Amino acid sequence: MKEKSLQQLYSLIINCRCPCPGERTGGLLVRDHGNPGKRIVFLGEAPGAEEVKQGMPFVGQAGRNLEGYLQLAGLERKDIFIVNTVKCRPTRNNGRANRKPGACEIKSCAHWLDEELAILSPGVIVTLGDVALKRLGGGKSRRISDCHGQPFKLERYTVFPMYHPAAAIYRRALTEVIEGDFKKLGNWLRG
Ligand code: URA
């Protein structure tokens, strides 16, 4: 049932033409092929090159990092469903590099994510990085550096904010912080 509704939604997303400035790779669907019935949804930022190539979220370097961290929470990919805040891949240098999604892209994709979450109806949403946190009501009041690892209620969801798994690639010191948050997530889910 959820899968059918998701497929309908994704057939609309793939035809979306973004009105925002900036270059991007659109028209290629990146979606999780796991079980949409899971109660835990992970919310990323936007697909990267490898994700667009394979049509799956978190299959590049960030995905390998994520899988390692998931183990610390006692989770595997099959236990979660992954979605992204922005559906296309924001690029620069003629597609050679990723860029952070802009405010216009986040806003333009907002209704897609709202519809996706309405279908998935998770109990817990784990936000990966500041883009996902802000998008889900973090606003100006919640900064990832202050609230990572501390769940909060947002409407019918509980949001568990995390650093993005790629953050530790650029800031090595974050590795331990992220590892600690994933262990905490596991204990919290089991508790
Ligand atoms: N980073 C994200 O935020 N999403 C992906 O799908 C891949 C990398």
Provide a descriptive summary of the structure in words.
By secondary structure, this protein is of the alpha/beta class. The protein has one domain (2-190): Uracil-DNA Glycosylase, subunit E. It has nine helices and eight strands. It has helices at residues 2-13, 49-54, 61-72, 103-108, 110-120, 130-138, 144-147, 167-170, 174-190; strands at residues 24-25, 40-44, 81-84, 89-92, 97-98, 124-128, 152-154, 157-162. The strands form two sheets. It has a five-stranded mixed sheet with strand order 3-2-6-8-7, sandwiched between helices. A three-stranded antiparallel sheet has the order 1-4-5, with no helix packed on it. Strand 7 and strand 8 (157-162) form a beta hairpin. Helix 1 packs antiparallel against helix 5 (110-120) and helix 3 (61-72) packs across helix 9. The longest helix is centred in the last third of the chain and has 17 residues, at 174-190. It is globular, with a radius of gyration of 16 Å. The model has no long low-confidence stretch (mean pLDDT 95). Residues 44-48, 51, 57-58, 62, 84, 128 line the site of uracil.
Compact summary:
This protein is an alpha/beta fold and 191 residues long.
Biggest sheet record: 5 strands, mixed
Oligomer class: single chain
> Structural class of the secondary structure composition?
alpha/beta
* Mean pLDDT figure: 95
CATH superfamily: Uracil-DNA glycosylase-like domain
Strand order of the largest sheet: 3-2-6-8-7
CATH C-level name:
Alpha Beta
Low-confidence stretches at least 5 residues in length (pLDDT < 50)?
none
Principal-axes geometry comes out as globular
User: Are any ligands bound, and if so which?
Assistant: uracil
CATH architecture: 3-Layer(aba) Sandwich
Helix content: 40-55%
Please write the string of helix (H) and strand (E) elements.
HEEHHEEEHHEHHEEHH
The tally of strands reads 8
- How many structurally independent domains? 1
Rg, alpha carbons:
16 Å
Protein name: Type-4 uracil-DNA glycosylase
Domain Uracil-DNA glycosylase-like: 31-183
EC number: 3.2.2.27
GO molecular function, one term: metal ion binding
